[in-house]
């Protein structure tokens, strides 16, 4: 049995930022999940109609998997190692070797093959992050950030989760810190994270990302019934809601988390304007939640004539306008 007594599980709102916080705290760096999320510039928006996920156009409210860990590590001066594998045997051998050394390891996995998830939540999503921190009686000890307590998984299920097929393929990816800085100076990492988030939301020239992407999707939503028919319109809209409210933390949840980051950064850097912007971003998160609620009613045909696809598009345009104003103000903050 591998010694696992020193790892402390903590529940979080989102898998990757939760893993970052848990791994870094295990190695002595006291960092909250919102701070990890903000320094890693996790907030984002993108709609990719040509990238199909289970046959439905993809929508994302966060940066690509692994970016939060990589960016936060680099900006905070943490040396990390990341490995992917072609062979399940080599992947599990490498994992066992790190656990034998007492090193908790972050893994990329598919939600569908995690038996400790309730059946209703086990769908084909291949970018879920978790920590494996030990072995006991042949099973692996798991700190899954979205679970309230630590759990365990059998080797066969873990192999299936690490090598699930589909987009994106986890390919047995594992990652972990190998060296931590002696001291953390927070100002520059926070500034870099904010600058990148503002770039993501305002300055990517392709009109599929940031606030431009929100407006692009809003127009498509308004055309869904005529462009793809009622059945597909419901499926497409349902996936937008699912990506917002069920996959990871989702759109509104990410806004609330980024707001918490801004408020924590305001205290860390003594910049009250960041706290003000955090409060305002919380209100934007409420707009997204209202959109999801109304969209869900439309999907279930419970809105009658009160809410239409056109109305939903207008709501998303309102979200885009609010975020554009907020991130332009955030971009002007002097550090």
Automatic annotation (TrEMBL):
Protein name: Butirosin biosynthesis protein H, N-terminal
Organism name: Chitinophaga costaii
Residue ranges annotated for the Butirosin biosynthesis protein H N-terminal domain, each copy included: 14-145
Transmembrane segments: none
Positions of the DUF4872 domain: 157-330
InterPro entries: BtrH_N, DUF4872
Domain of life: Bacteria
């Amino acid at each position: 049995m591998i010694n696992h007594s020193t790892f402390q599980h903590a529940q979080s709102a989102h898998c990757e930022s939760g893993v970052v916080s848990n791994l870094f705290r295990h190695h002595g760096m006291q960092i909250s999940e919102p701070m990890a999320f903000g320094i890693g510039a996790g907030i984002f928006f993108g709609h990719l109609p040509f990238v199909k996920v289970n046959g439905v156009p993809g929508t994302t409210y966060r940066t690509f998997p692994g970016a939060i860990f990589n960016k936060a590590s680099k900006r905070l001066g943490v040396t990390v190692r990341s490995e992917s594998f072609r062979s399940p045997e080599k992947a599990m051998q490498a994992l066992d070797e790190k656990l034998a050394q007492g090193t908790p390891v972050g893994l990329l996995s598919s939600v569908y093959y995690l038996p400790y998830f309730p059946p209703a939540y086990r769908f084909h999503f291949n970018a879920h992050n978790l920590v494996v921190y030990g072995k006991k009686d042949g099973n692996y000890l798991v700190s899954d950030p979205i679970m309230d307590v630590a759990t365990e998984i059998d080797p066969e299920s873990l192999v299936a989760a690490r090598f699930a097929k589909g987009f994106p393929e986890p390919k047995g990816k594992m990652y972990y810190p190998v060296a931590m800085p002696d001291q953390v100076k927070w100002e520059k990492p926070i500034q870099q994270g904010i600058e990148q988030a503002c770039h993501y939301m305002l300055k990517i020239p392709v009109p599929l990302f940031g606030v431009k992407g929100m407006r692009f999707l809003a127009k498509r939503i308004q055309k869904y019934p005529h462009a793809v028919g009622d059945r597909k319109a419901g499926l497409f809209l349902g996936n937008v809601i699912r990506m917002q409210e069920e996959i990871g933390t989702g759109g509104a949840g990410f806004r609330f988390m980024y707001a918490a980051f801004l408020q924590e950064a305001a205290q860390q850097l003594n910049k009250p304007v960041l706290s003000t912007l955090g409060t305002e971003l919380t209100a934007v998160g409420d707009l997204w939640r209202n959109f999801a609620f109304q969209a869900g009613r439309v999907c279930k045909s419970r809105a009658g004539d009160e809410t239409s696809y056109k109305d939903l598009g207008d709501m998303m345009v309102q979200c885009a306008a609010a975020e554009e104003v907020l991130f332009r103000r955030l971009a002007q903050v002097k550090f």
